[in-house]
Task: structure prediction
Amino acid sequence: MSKPLNIGLIGTGFMGRAHSNAYRKVSNFFKLPYHPVLKAVCARSADKVKDFAETWGYESTETDWKTLISRKDIDAIDICTPNNNHAEIAIAAAQAGKIILCEKPLAMNGPEGLKMVEAVEKAKVPNIVWYNYRRVPAVTLAKKLIEEGRLGKIFHYRAKFLQDWTISPELPQGGAGLWRLDVAASGSGVSGDLLAHCIDTALWLNGSLDTISAMTETFIKERKHTLTGKTEKVGIDDACIFMGRFKNGSLANFESTRYARGHKALYTFEINGENASIAWDLHDLHRLQYFDYKDEGKLRGWKSIHVTDAGGDHPYMDKWWVPGLSIGYEHSFVHQVADFLESLGSGKPAMPDFRDAYRTQLVLDAITESAKTGKWEKVESA
Ligand code: SOE
Result:
């Protein structure tokens, strides 16, 4: 018998919607030891939070996250706020003994992330960070192929995440929807927002980074601030490029920007090993490109493995439709909830937990430092 897990969601933006959608769908498709109950949603505006609760089917609303955390009928706190609130809320939730699901990136920086890790480990509460792209079936398949040793020794890991939505100098910084441009709320720009996804996937697929050398740029130096009404200095990075060396000896080549005209969410990675290469592109998320040198000479070439075609042999796909039919971006969140609920039953933590996500935070810290000093930086171990 599946047990209820009462969710208290904080934040009603894009991610609040993505998570709520996942909570609503997961039990219809996955047989799990727990099923989410949309108990309460919390946001500062009473009108907006009521509207959100009605749209997504939350039983109640709060306007103060401290009240939400103090409620005995809430089992799990889901943090979908801007990054500068993650630590305070997560630490308070851990002290109250709540299960915690936190949006990425874990924190504003490494030291803050470490406090969050220590809080959840001390309280022994289950925790996870929403790096959702790990659970796109073709990406999970890439993990499987690597674990099976099919690529052999890895030489190169290449990733990029490109968008174009901040090119206009008229776009203000700060406030609802635009807090990603305000360094006080976000901690960083594209590095924490986009590159963090690439780093999380890379650490998962290819192990730890050892050293990095980074370059960042802020193309628009001043923007009007929505909260103060004044034109203020922009503190985020608009673009970030870094190269590096993984501990397994392979070379890293990463890029992210919000100034790549024509690109809305081009997340791609390619891994080259001695026996095989794999490549993935979010725009064609079901496809894993695979080249295996061991294939018979005359048939050797890039294979286009489409995870909908295998009749459910690929990760998560047996839970959805008949072969040939697609799922999408939103399902990566459903898969993350499914794995997390499964882990609550088995006691085997689902990744990335706070400590695992802290490793990404340490790479981000090294990027910030290297961009400042112009020097190579060692990535600290978690
Ligand atoms: C930024 O535009 C953003 O929404 C990120 O915040 C998400 O994490 C990413 O998945 C898509 O782009």
